[in-house]
Amino acid sequence: MALLKRGLAGEPVKILQAKLGVTADGQFGPATETALKAYQTQHGLAADGIAGPDTFTALGLPELVLLTVGTKGEAVKKLQTALGIPADGAFGPATAKAVKEFQEKNGLDADGMAGPDTLAKIPAFAGVFSPEAVAKSQAAPGTISTDTKPAEAGATAAPKKSIWQTITSFFS
């Protein structure tokens, strides 16, 4: 997930809440924001109440990391350095192009977004993006729906997506 913030809902929020030790209802509300800001402050991160790649990594949630156009931070800078391009920490078109080229060379889905599968193939990220993290990103979510709307009576349930399918669908 590129970012999780107040007002969002779904399985990625539930995973974040469980890690923060707050009620894991899948709704990013005031309690989640407060707990997140406290965690960020305690760990030297920008205490903005928004969970992005650097916060996910610090929390030990690499399965939620998605670096894509518009993402900023240390994880992007580390990616740029590893790809041998100028490292300004802002994921723009040049970074997307370099990621896509890397993905093509490594037999990955060449979408220009760096998630667990891509980052696991980059030596600079190998310690964080283990096969277990990649497997978690591919796992089907728990019992909470990733939809934010209640199901209509008589409607058939959509097949469950993996966490990663859910995350990348926001950018397709």
Briefly summarize what is shown:
This protein has 172 residues and is mostly helical.
Main structural class: mainly alpha
Provide the β-strand percentage band. Answer: under 5%
Low-confidence segments: 143-161
Count of DSSP H/I helices = 8
Broad shape: globular
Main sheet record:
none
Instruction: Output mean pLDDT.
Output: 84
Rg on CA atoms, Å: 16 Å
What is the straight-line distance between the termini? Answer: 13 Å
The number of strands is 0
What's the layout of helices and strands?
Layout: H1 11-20, H2 30-42, H3 53-59, H4 74-83, H5 93-105, H6 116-120, H7 131-138, H8 163-169
Question: Any overview of this molecule?
Answer:
The protein has 8 helices and no strands. The protein has helices at residues 11-20, 30-42, 53-59, 74-83, 93-105, 116-120, 131-138, 163-169. It is globular.
Notable characteristics:
single chain, 172 residues, mainly alpha, 8 helices, 42% helix, globular
